[in-house]
Amino acid sequence: MPQLTPHQEAALNYKKHISLTANAGSGKTFVLANRYIEIALQENIPLNKIVAITFTEKAAGELNKKIANEIDNRIIDEKNSEIFNRLQRIRRQLTSANISTIHSFCINLLKEYSPEIGVDANFSPINQQDAEELLELTIEDFISRKISNSELSKDIKDIIRLLGGKNTFVNQLKAIVRFRKPIEKLGLSLYSQSNEEIYRFYIEQITNILNEIINLEINPLIKLITQLNNRILEFDEQNQTAVEIKFNVEKYFNEELPQNKIQYVSTISELLLTKSNRTIKKRGYRKDSYEIDETIISGIENIFNEIKPLISISFDEKPLY
Fold first, then answer.
1. What is the pLDDT of residues 279-308, one digit of tens each?
2. Which residues on neighbouring strands pair with residue 54, listed in sequence order?
3. What are the C-alpha distances in Å from 175 to residues 24, 110, 126, 282?
4. Are 218 and 265 in contact (CB under 8 A)?
5. Which residues lie across from 273 on neighbouring strands?
6. What is the dihedral of CA 206, 210, 211, 212, to 10 degrees?
7. 80 alpha carbon, distance to own chain's centre
8. Residues 164, 160: Cα–Cα separation, whole Å
9. How far is Cα of residue 245 from the mean position of the Cα atoms in its chain?
10. What average pLDDT is seen over the chain?
11. Where does residue 315 fall: left (phi above 0), alpha (psi -120 to 50 degrees), or beta otherwise?
């Protein structure tokens, strides 16, 4: 066995639980392979009693190969007949050792104990593509059956119209299936409450998200707009558009509710930007003769382009409080 570092030597102490982290190429697989061999050799344990789990099939193959090579090297050098015989036994058992991914390990368990758990021993696991196709077919069948049900047909059609189309509805159902565990947990904890409590929960979540967007995106935008607007007022203090923008900026800073802040930003965008290409207006606002820092101009236009979907939302239907 090659000379080990102190950390590698410590990792071979299988009497202790360890969490091994190291850079690529530092010998993690080598250490794990020798740790595996030491357990089998020193404790005289059959390999079917030891489980080695990896993330990928490739990693499992590499670990198996490392273990086999190390055993072969030890067999060649071993002088003690008892240990020699143990090493040969381990080498023979290696072909059926439990060195695999978690998926393969679980599949083998299910096949071995299929009668006890009521599973056909000849089952075959499906891959990701097959799973996606099966999910789509199941959803299509679900939608068809619900639409054909006279009592549910209107509700399903209303949901599809609300989401903007059948494809969006299907994608939402897929997401629900994929995240069913947290959704079920949410259903038990949240949707068992009253409508008012559910409403307030979502209002709180939306408010938190809006405040985060305001801090990260909109406050820097308003700072740039203020710089631009103040510069234009230096050239023309009677500029009507600049005066209205300044008024809405002041309203923005005096407002506490995030949805109202966004409404002021929406108003500012209507005053500041052209409707066609969403660039800063020149007619009636910014003249070519004004000395304006172009980085401010591009910064404002870029941020407005990013938050355009947000400031297009109307919060008038029901207040967030």
1. 998 888 888 777 788 899 999 999 999 998
2. 101
3. 35, 28, 19, 46
4. yes
5. 280
6. 100
7. 54
8. 6
9. 39
10. 87
11. alpha
Task: Identify the DSSP state of 2.
Answer: P
Give the helix/strand (H/E) hosting 54: strand 51-54
**Count of positions (residues) in the chain:** 321
Mean pLDDT is lowest, of 62-71, 114-123, 199-208, for 114-123
Handedness of CA 226, 229, 234, 239 (dihedral sign): negative
Residue 224 has pLDDT above 60, yes or no: yes
CB 36 within 8 A of CB 50: yes
8-37: string of b/e by CB count within 10 Å (b at 16+)? beebbebeeeeeeeeeeeebbbbbbbbbbb
Q: For residue 316, what pLDDT band results from cuts at 50, 70 and 90?
A: low
How far is Cα 295 from Cα 162, in angstroms, rounded to an integer?
A: 41
Q: Name the amino acid, one letter, at 61.
A: G
Which pTM value belongs to this model? 0.49
Q: Has residue 215 got a pLDDT over 50? A: yes
Alpha-helical (H) ranges within 124-238 are: 128-148, 153-163, 166-178, 180-189, 195-213, 219-235
Give the residue carrying structure tokens 């083998």: 108
Nearest residue to 123 via CA among 134, 135, 110, 137 = 110
What is the CA 123 to chain-centroid distance, rounded?
31
The Cα 211–Cα 172 span in angstroms is: 26
Q: What is the mean pLDDT of residues 229-235?
A: 91
The pLDDT assigned to 2 comes to 61
